[in-house]
Automatic annotation (TrEMBL):
SMART domains: FCH (SM00055), RhoGAP (SM00324). Residues 21-37 have a biased composition (Pro residues). Signal peptide: none annotated. Residues 10-20, 38-53 have a biased composition (Low complexity). Residues 526-714 form the Rho-GAP domain. Keywords: Coiled coil. This is SLIT-ROBO Rho GTPase-activating protein 1. Residues 215-252 form a coiled coil.
Length: 776
C-alpha cells in the first residue's frame, strides 16, 4: 500500500533558476523522475517498509495481457454470467411447471375418485331401493320377523347402507367439486406468484447488469489512464535525457520550463491512474459481492417467495378430504394418519435445499472476477496514497453513514415483510377446508375474498423486491466499505469498541416465506420447539413421565441410563408416547432400564438435539482452555441465556433431575461422570464435520459440569416448571419373589446385543478410567 506512495515522495524536484509562483493547495506538487539508469529501470523486490521506485514495473519478466484481450475475456465472462442468470430463471420456471404437473395428477386423481364415489353411492342406493321393494312386496310374510332380534340387526345394516349413500354422495361432491375448484385456485395463485417473482428476478438481473457495465467502464478508464501515465512518464524521461546533454546554461534554463511542464503533466496523469485503479478494484469487489449475494441469498429467497403458501394451500385442500374421511368413519384411520404425516412433513426449506443440491451446477456461486493489472502495475489492492487519502477518508465516512441508514431501512423492510406474511398467511390458512357442515345440513364452505388477498400479495411482492434489491446494495457497499477500511488502516477502525470476548449466539440468515406448523408435530424424530409450541406442554409428556417414574422407582436402580432395557418394552413405550398416551402410569420398578432407554432414544432421535448444533461451538468454548471450573460455569451462564426460553426450561428440569440422581451414586453406581458418558452422545452429538475423538472428552466434561453445577447455571427464580425431589421410597413389588441370583422375568427379555452391551458397560474399570479424565 505504501510502496507507490513512498516512491512519489522519493522523486527529486528539478531545480529552476527563477522562483516559481506558489501552487494552489488543492493541486499536488509536480514530481520529477530520476535520471534513467539500469538500476531505475530494473524493478527490485523490496520489503513493505522500504520505498520502491514509483515506476516499479517488470516489462521483461512478466508478459501482460493486451487491453483488447482483457476486454474480450471480460465480455466472455459477462456473457457466461448472463447465460447462467437466464438459465436460473428457466430452471425455476421448470420447477414450477413440475410442481403444477404433480398437482394436475393429484387433481385428476380426485376427479376420478369423485366418479368412483358417485358410482358406489348409486349402486348402494339401488341396493337399498331393491331391499325396500322386497320388504314391501313381502310385507305379509315378514310380519313375524319383528320378534326376531336379528331383524333389528338387519334393519341397522339397511339403515347403515342408506347413510353410506349419503356419505359417499357428499364425498363425490367434495372430490369432484370443492377440491377440484380448490386446486384450480392453487394453480392460478402459483402461476400469478411466479410471474411476479420472475419480475423481481429480472429486476435483480438488471441491477447486476448495471454493475457489470460500470465495471467494464471503470476497467477501460483504468487502462486508459495507465497508458497516459506511461506516456507522460516516457516523455518526462526523454526531456530529462535531452536536458542532461545540454551544456549551455542558457539553454538549460529554457529547457527547465519544459521539464517543469512535463513534471506537472506526469503528476496529473499518475494521480488519475491511482484513482482509476482504486475505483476499478472497488467496483470489482462490489460486483463479486453482488454476484455472491444474489446466488447465495437472493435465489433461495426468490424460491421461497415463489412457493409462498403453495404447500400450505395443498395441505389445506387435503385437509378438506380428511375432514370428509373422518366424518364417514369407515375405518380409514391408517389412510388419515398417512396423509397427516404427508402434509405435516411439507417443508419449504427442505424442498428448496434438495432442489438446489440437485441443480448445484446451475445455482452454484459464480466464479470471482479477478483483477487484471495494466502492464507495469504491480499493486493489486486499494491504496490510500497521500494524494487521495483525504478524499478516500471522506468517502469512507459517507459510506459508513449510508450503510448505517440502509441497514436500518433494510431491517424495517424485513419487519414489514414478516407482518405482511402473517396477514397473507391468514388468508391462505382459511378454515373452509373443514367440510363437517356438509355432513349436517349441506351448507357449503364459504370462500374468502380474493381481491383482498391480491392486494396483500402485491404489497408483499413489492416489499420483497425492495428487500432483495436493498440487501444486494448493502452487500455491494459493504464490500467497498471493507476494502476501503483495510486501505485506510487504523484510522477507520478507531471508533470500534466491540467486545470480542462477549459470547454471542450465531446469527442465522433471515428466512422468507415461513410456513406455519401443520398438524401435530412428531415426538420422536421431530423438533422439541415445534412440539412445545403446538402442544403447549412446557415439559413434554415423555420427559416428565420418565423422570417421574425414575424419581419414584429408579433412583436406587444400579446402572440406570447405562444398562440397556428390553427393546420390546422400549418400542411399546415409544408407540404409546407417540399417540399422546402415558404408558408409565402403572409402571413397576423392574422396567426402569426400559424407561431410561426410551428417554435416551427420544433425545437421540430429536431432529434438533437438546444442545442445538448452531450452539455447539459456543458450548465447547466454555469448557476448552479455561483456567478453572468456576470460569467454565460463568461462561455457561452466558451461553444458556442465549437459548430459546422453552429449551432453557427443559434443560433446567432435566439436569436438576440428573443432579438428584447422582445423590444416590453409591447405590446406582452412576455419578455425574458416568451419567455424562452415557448421555452426552444423545444430548450433544458431535457434528460430522468435527473430529469425533477430539470433542468426545469435551462434551462429556461439559455435561458433567452442568450436572454438578446446575443450580448455578440454571437459576430457579424464573417462570416455568421446576423439578421437585420426592422424598419417598416405594418398594419394588415382588422383589422378595426373585430367586437367589436376583434374575427377574423381565430381565430375561433382553436381546443378545443388549446382553453384550450390558457386559461391556458393567466393567467398573471403565468408570475408573472416566473418573481419571476429570480436569478439575
Amino acid at each position: 500500500m505504501a510502496t507507490s506512495e513512498a516512491s512519489l515522495k522519493s522523486l527529486p524536484m528539478t531545480p529552476t533558476s527563477a522562483p516559481s509562483s506558489p501552487q494552489p493547495t488543492t493541486s499536488p506538487l509536480p514530481l520529477a523522475l530520476p535520471p534513467p539508469s539500469t538500476a531505475s529501470l530494473t524493478p527490485t523486490t523490496s520489503s513493505p517498509s522500504t520505498p520502491s521506485p514509483f515506476y516499479d514495473d517488470k516489462p521483461i519478466e512478466k508478459c501482460y495481457k493486451k487491453e483488447k484481450q482483457i476486454l474480450f475475456e471480460f465480455d466472455q465472462t459477462v456473457k457466461e454470467i448472463r447465460l447462467q442468470l437466464n438459465d436460473q430463471l428457466k430452471y425455476l420456471e421448470q420447477r414450477i411447471e413440475t410442481q403444477l404437473a404433480i398437482l394436475a395428477e393429484i387433481q385428476e386423481y380426485f376427479r376420478r375418485r369423485a366418479d368412483v364415489e358417485l358410482d358406489y353411492a348409486k349402486n348402494l342406493d339401488n341396493l337399498h331401493k331393491q331391499i325396500g321393494q322386497r320388504h314391501r312386496a313381502q310385507k305379509a310374510r315378514r310380519e313375524t320377523w319383528s320378534s326376531q332380534s336379528i331383524t333389528k340387526l338387519w334393519d341397522t345394516v339397511v339403515q347403515d347402507t342408506r347413510m353410506h349413500v349419503k356419505y359417499h354422495t357428499i364425498m363425490s361432491d367434495v372430490c369432484g367439486k370443492y377440491m377440484f375448484d380448490k386446486f384450480n385456485e392453487i394453480v392460478e395463485d402459483t402461476r400469478r406468484m411466479f410471474t411476479k417473482c420472475k419480475a423481481v428476478g429480472l429486476a435483480s438481473h438488471e441491477d447486476i447488469y448495471k454493475v457489470l457495465n460500470e465495471l467494464k467502464s471503470t476497467m477501460a478508464t483504468y487502462h486508459q489512464y495507465q497508458s497516459e501515465s506511461k506516456q507522460a512518464e516516457q516523455k518526462l524521461r526523454n526531456i530529462q535525457q535531452q536536458m542532461a546533454k545540454i551544456k549551455s546554461v542558457k539553454k538549460q534554463k529554457a529547457m527547465s520550463k519544459r521539464v517543469e511542464k512535463r513534471q506537472m503533466k506526469y503528476t496529473e496523469t499518475k494521480v488519475k491512474a491511482f484513482k482509476a485503479r482504486n475505483d476499478y478494484l472497488m467496483v470489482i469487489e462490489s460486483v463479486n459481492a453482488a454476484l455472491q449475494k444474489y446466488c447465495s441469498d437472493d435465489v433461495p429467497d426468490l424460491i421461497d417467495c415463489m412457493n409462498f403458501g403453495f404447500h400450505t394451500s395443498i395441505a389445506k385442500s387435503i385437509q378438506m378430504y380428511l375432514s370428509a374421511q373422518e366424518n364417514i368413519k369407515r375405518g380409514r384411520q391408517m389412510t388419515i394418519e398417512t396423509l397427516n404425516r404427508a402434509f405435516g412433513d411439507l417443508d419449504t426449506v427442505v424442498d428448496k435445499q434438495k432442489y438446489l443440491e440437485a441443480n448445484a451446477s446451475v445455482f452454484t456461486i459464480t466464479k470471482r472476477i479477478k483483477f487484471e493489472p495494466h502492464k507495469g502495475d504491480e499493486v493489486s489492492t486499494v491504496n490510500a496514497q497521500v494524494l487521495i487519502r483525504d478524499e478516500m477518508q471522506s468517502r469512507f465516512v459517507q459510506m459508513q453513514n449510508r450503510l448505517a441508514g440502509l441497514k436500518t431501512e433494510h431491517d424495517e423492510i424485513f419487519k414489514t415483510i414478516e407482518a405482511t406474511e402473517q396477514s397473507l398467511m391468514e388468508y391462505i390458512n382459511t378454515k373452509n377446508s373443514d367440510v363437517s357442515d356438509l355432513f349436517k345440513d349441506l351448507n357449503l364452505p364459504q370462500n374468502t375474498s380474493k381481491s383482498t388477498r391480491k392486494e396483500i400479495e402485491d404489497y408483499y411482492v413489492e416489499k420483497f423486491k425492495e428487500y432483495t434489491l436493498s440487501s444486494n446494495l448493502i452487500a455491494r457497499l459493504q464490500a467497498r466499505h471493507d476494502i476501503m477500511q483495510k486501505a485506510l488502516g487504523a484510522a477507520a477502525t478507531a471508533g470500534s469498541t466491540e467486545d470480542k470476548n462477549l459470547i454471542r449466539r450465531p446469527i442465522k440468515p433471515r428466512q422468507i416465506g415461513r410456513a406455519p406448523i401443520l398438524g401435530r408435530p412428531r415426538l420422536f424424530g421431530g423438533k422439541l420447539l415445534d412440539y412445545i409450541q403446538v402442544t403447549e406442554q412446557a415439559i413434554p409428556l415423555i420427559i416428565s413421565s420418565c423422570v417421574s417414574a425414575i424419581n419414584r422407582l429408579g433412583l436406587h436402580n444400579q446402572g440406570i441410563f447405562r444398562v440397556p432395557g428390553a427393546q420390546v418394552d422400549i418400542n411399546q413405550f415409544k408407540d404409546a408416547f407417540e399417540k399422546g398416551e402415558d404408558p408409565l402410569v402403572n409402571i413397576t420398578g423392574r422396567d426402569m432400564n426400559s424407561v431410561a432407554g426410551v428417554l435416551k432414544l427420544y433425545f437421540r432421535e430429536l431432529k434438533e438435539p437438546l444442545f442445538a448444533r448452531d450452539m455447539f461451538d459456543s458450548f465447547i468454548s466454555c469448557i476448552v482452555d479455561v483456567e478453572s471450573e468456576d470460569k467454565c460455569v460463568e461462561n455457561l451462564c452466558q451461553v444458556v441465556k442465549l437459548l430459546p426460553r422453552p429449551i432453557f426450561i427443559v434443560m433446567r428440569y432435566f439436569f436438576a433431575f440428573l443432579n438428584h440422581l447422582t445423590e444416590y451414586s453409591d447405590e446406582n453406581m452412576m455419578d455425574a461422570s458416568n451419567l455424562a458418558s452415557c448421555l452426552a452422545p444423545s444430548l450433544m452429538p458431535i457434528p460430522e464435520d468435527k473430529d469425533q475423538v477430539q470433542y468426545v472428552t469435551h462434551t462429556i466434561e461439559l455435561i458433567r459440569t452442568i450436572i454438578t453445577r446446575h443450580d448455578e447455571i440454571f437459576p430457579a427464580n424464573d417462570d416455568g416448571p421446576v423439578y421437585e425431589k420426592f422424598a419417598i421410597t416405594i418398594p419394588i413389588e415382588g422383589e422378595e419373589d426373585e430367586d437367589d441370583e436376583g434374575i427377574s422375568e423381565r430381565s430375561m427379555r433382553h436381546s443378545p446385543s443388549d446382553d453384550a452391551s450390558q457386559d461391556s458397560d458393567y466393567c467398573t474399570e471403565d468408570f475408573n478410567l472416566l473418573n481419571e479424565t476429570d480436569v478439575w
